[in-house]
Amino acid sequence: MVWELRQLTLFIHILLAITWVGGVFFVGWGVFPAVRNMTFTRQRELLLALMQWSHKLLAAAGSGVIATGLLLGTAFGPVSSWNYIWLTQYGNIWITAFIIGSLTLLWGIFVGFRQAISVCSDETLWKRADTGDKKPLFQALTRTAIFESVEVVGFITLIVLMVSL
Predict the structure, then answer these.
(1) What are the pLDDT digits (tens) for 57-107?
(2) Cβ atoms 91, 84 nearer than 8 A
(3) Contact of 67 with 101, CB cutoff 8 Å
(4) How many Cβ atoms sit within 10 Å of the Cβ of residue 12?
(5) How many CA atoms lie within 13 A of 89 on its CB side?
(6) Does pTM surpass 0.90?
(7) Dist CA 128 CA 115 (whole Å)
(8) How far apart are CA 44 and CA 53, in angstroms?
(9) Contact partners, residue 81, CB within 8 Å, separation at least 6
(10) Integer Cα distance of 21 and 57 in angstroms
(11) Is 50 within 8 Å of 27 (Cβ atoms)?
């Protein structure tokens, strides 16, 4: 029975990770480039609505990944004490993944998302771009891409850590 629960938890963990990472990548690398054919005002409206809607889902998925990761390491895994975390390779990788996953999620919620919403909410930037003054908007979007890159680095690091387990 415990083995089946572990396998179910692992399945949920992987499914939520795909949702979290894939969702962030899809918005950043799929939606943003796809809306470039729209007017800037329409881009802003779509991106703002998408960010507000997807944020809750992606934050919940990220939280679920962390929660199931904790279960996989402790209740269904070998981590049973602080000594195990500090004195074994598995424990070191597990705690590193927990910290990086948590920081990546917190960054996405409190920094990346807020930066994106700030840019999408600034109607003046988008209206100026619609009239030909695109530089301020492009600078703001570049800053947003840089802020969001932190999440990508976190995801890549997590994948490398998971493969090394």
Answers:
(1) 999 999 999 999 999 999 999 999 999 999 999 999 999 999 999 999 999
(2) yes
(3) no
(4) 16
(5) 4
(6) yes
(7) 19
(8) 14
(9) none
(10) 12
(11) yes
